[in-house]
Specification:
The complex is a heterodimer of chains A (452) and B (137). With 452 residues, chain A is of the alpha+beta class. Chain A is built from 16 helices and 22 strands. Chain A starts with a strand and ends with a helix. The longest helix of chain B is centred in the first third of the chain and has 13 residues. At the A-B interface, β3 and α3 of A face loops of B.
Chain lengths: 452, 137
């Protein structure tokens, strides 16, 4: 039984969780930093507590502050959203110790699967295909001989890494020592853990992820795939479901692999298994995200299932309401992440006050956003201000709808990535599906945006 | 009494001190000296007053705020008597309350000297970060 959920997050995801709570008749508690005095999620929640100054480290990432807020408000559950403390096993453990339900997997699952090297081992044992690779490398010498076995090009990756940090692609043996030491240093300074491992570098891969959902009774299902190949510096920009290059057979095989892997650890609650799909059609486990993801609405639109509500139901101890055969995706959904950034200036952040706002609407349009006219986008946090999601009965229908919506969307007073998305919705390679994860990085954005 | 005050203020004007508090029986005077108050000292400020004399600007409102989320207690714990009451004088660094966060007690210390004017929270009340607890007048 969950009576009151504290939402340990901010922005659009805090709103998202608060809305789900309201529909379930559950009370919600918002927390905010001094940098978020004007944030909408404060007014949407039943209660609101200031937990610290603007810097995330002193507020949203401050475990005692968040737990104290739960204690003083009497919250019996915490939803961590994504980012911040969502994959912090220590935080999940402390919730458990305080008798607060952490809406997510167990602390042990977060620990084990959050370590990329360990996750690869676990998945490999479960029979999930993994990229040919190694365990933790003890030296550049070991890296050299491993690379010879695997075959160049290879990727040196941080075990505790994310967002592309602590990662180095190596084309030939002459580069390997330098790559090893710089990756190690970057990993140490970014994650406090310099341990590295190696994987075969798949060229021109697509990033295909499978949404999974498990209950506390051993049931796990998958809800299909999302194609997140449009990224810039490892940050996703556009996601869609289904993927143009995943047919029913491949979906079944990838989904089955994801479920098998999740079941092997008794995975609970929502999660996403990320795969690399090589041009030859082989797929390889990359990592598992033990939380709800930014792009979850894309899956919600094609399946008709409210993932946040299902997370809360699972956390309450309920059995999954769906069998695998009940999951019947329909139509096509696309999400564009709208950031307060200037795409004409290398996506430089552009916080400031929104003077005019008009969001698009109509059939098949969904806007997940915390912004409003006169809202000042604070500089302290990530720059995503809205998620624009469309559903269509086909990919072409969805694309037309997205084009219409991007034209309708008015956000004045700051610069946003809307022009970038408008350009992408006309880009021939994106339209024909010939994209891969480095696609955006390799585009000549300056030239393309001139024409928009 | 007025002679005492005159003498005190004359001493002040001759000293390097820029701020002062003076108490004679029931009379309390608190004030600040301007950098160039040389001309002011030659005239005798004779009136008794409980408001600031020789002050260059009115004293700012000082508020002590919660530095963390938790439960505020007026004394060292839930049952103990309060550290301070209204009209008490406090010195900078003096403990004026505690916040209990997840079982650990954290002292709230006065950040300035002054006299307690208002107490905004009750014993045991839940407080958020930045919440005003006590103000000086």
């Amino acid at each position: 039984m969950i009576k009151k959920v504290l939402v340990a997050n901010r922005g659009e995801i805090a709103l998202r969780v608060i809305r789900a709570c309201r529909e379930l008749g559950i009370e919600s508690v918002a927390v905010h930093s001094e940098g978020d005095e004007n944030s909408l999620h404060r007014t949407f929640a039943d209660e609101d507590i200031c937990i610290g100054p603007a810097p995330s480290r002193e507020s949203y990432l401050n475990i005692p502050s968040v737990l104290a807020a739960a204690q003083v408000s009497g919250a019996d559950a915490i939803h961590p959203g994504y980012g911040f403390l969502a994959e912090n096993a220590s935080f999940a453990r402390k919730c458990q110790e305080m008798g607060i339900t952490f809406i997510g997997p167990t602390p042990e699952q977060i620990d084990e699967l959050g370590d990329k090297d360990r996750a690869r081992q676990v998945m490999s044992e479960a029979g999930v295909p993994i990229t040919p690779g190694t365990g933790i490398l003890s030296s550049a010498e070991e890296a050299k001989s491993a690379a010879m076995d695997i075959g160049y090009p290879v990727l040196i990756k941080a075990v505790a890494g994310g967002g592309g940090k602590g990662m180095r692609a190596v084309e030939s043996e002459s580069e390997i020592e330098a790559a090893f030491s710089t990756a190690k240093a970057e990993a140490e300074s970014n994650f406090g853990n310099g341990a590295l491992y190696m994987e075969k570098l798949i060229l021109r891969p697509r990033h295909i992820e499978i949404q999974i959902l498990g209950d506390h009774h051993g049931n796990v299902i998958h809800l299909g795939e999302r194609d997140c190949s449009i990224q810039r510096r490892h940050q996703k920009l556009i996601e869609e479901s289904p993927s143009l290059v995943v047919d029913a057979d491949l979906r079944e095989r990838m989904g089955a692999a994801a479920v098998k892997g999740a079941q092997s650890v008794g995975y609970r609650n929502a999660g996403t298994m990320e795969f690399l799909l090589a041009p030859d059609g082989q797929f390889y486990f990359m990592e598992i995200n033990t939380r709800i993801q930014v792009e979850h609405p894309v899956t919600e639109e094609v399946t008709g299932i409210n993932l946040i509500k299902e997370q809360i139901r699972v956390a309450r101890g309920e059995k999954l309401r769906f069998k695998q055969t009940d999951i019947q995706p329909r139509g096509h959904a696309i999400e564009c992440r709208i950031n307060a950034e200037d795409p004409r200036r290398k996506f430089a952040p552009f916080p400031g006050t929104i003077t005019h706002l008009h969001a698009p609407g109509g059939f098949g349009v969904r806007v997940d956003s915390h912004i409003y006219a006169d809202y000042t986008v604070p500089p302290h946090y990530d720059s995503m201000i809205a998620k624009l999601i469309v559903w269509g009965d086909s990919r072409e229908d969805a694309l037309q709808r997205m084009r219409r919506c991007l034209r309708e969307y008015v956000i004045e007073g700051i610069r946003t990535t809307i022009p970038f998305h408008m350009m992408m919705m006309e880009n021939p390679e994106f339209l024909s599906g010939e994209v891969y994860t480095k696609f955006v990085d390799e585009l000549d954005l300056a030239k393309l945006l001139e024409d928009t | 009494m007025s002679q005492d005050i005159e003498q005190a203020l004359r001493l002040l004007s001759q000293s390097q001190a820029s701020e002062f508090r003076l108490q004679i029986d029931d009379l309390r005077i608190q004030g600040r000296k301007d950098a160039d108050s040389a001309s002011a000292t030659s005239s005798a400020p004779a009136q008794t007053s409980t408001s600031s004399a020789d002050a260059s600007e009115p004293p700012k409102l000082v508020e002590f705020r919660a530095d963390r989320v938790g439960f505020f207690f007026r004394g060292p714990n839930a049952e103990a008597p309060p550290f301070v009451e209204i009209d008490d004088e406090v010195c900078q660094g003096q403990v004026v309350g505690v916040i209990q966060q997840l079982g650990t007690f954290h002292q709230i210390k006065a950040s300035a000297d002054g006299v307690v004017g208002s107490i905004f929270v009750e014993n045991g009340q839940a407080v958020e970060f930045g919440q005003p607890l006590i103000s000086l007048r």
